[in-house]
């Protein structure tokens, strides 16, 4: 009986570890492709974070975090005939010259704040001048 419990616990811990390893963080996407870098192609990275929701007060903590971390967040308010309820979106972006765990830290801070709304983020490459 003890062996079954230990095996189940080990499987659960392995699943959790595998799930944690599968999480993509922004800095992983900011790594240059080796072939392109070898040819002298240089990229910078734009990390964007958006938070959308129906309650602005529930999103203010994340807006503050983005401001403190240099994302210069903007606020937009929308409503339409299809969605007549007022809808808020806070979005900010920051450019990085190279892969940076600072982007990971900013995302983690916003996630830990648990602001009301839907969080999304993107990393896009931008050709840099040399």
TrEMBL record:
Superkingdom: Bacteria
**Protein name in the entry:** SPOR domain-containing protein
Record keywords: Signal
Tell me the first and last residues of the signal peptide: 1-20
Keyword Signal on entry: yes
């Amino acid at each position: 009986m003890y062996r079954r419990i230990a095996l189940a616990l080990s499987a659960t811990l392995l699943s959790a570890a595998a799930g944690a390893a599968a999480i993509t963080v922004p800095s992983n996407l900011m790594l240059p492709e080796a072939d392109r870098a070898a040819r002298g192609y240089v990229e910078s990275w734009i990390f964007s974070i958006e938070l959308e929701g129906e309650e602005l007060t529930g999103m203010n903590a994340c807006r503050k975090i983005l401001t403190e971390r240099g994302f210069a967040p903007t606020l937009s308010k929308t409503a339409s005939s299809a969605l007549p309820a007022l809808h808020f979106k806070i979005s900010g972006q920051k450019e990085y010259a190279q892969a940076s765990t600072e982007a990971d830290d900013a995302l983690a801070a916003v996630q830990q704040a648990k602001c009301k709304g839907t969080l999304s983020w993107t990393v896009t490459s931008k050709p840099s001048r040399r």
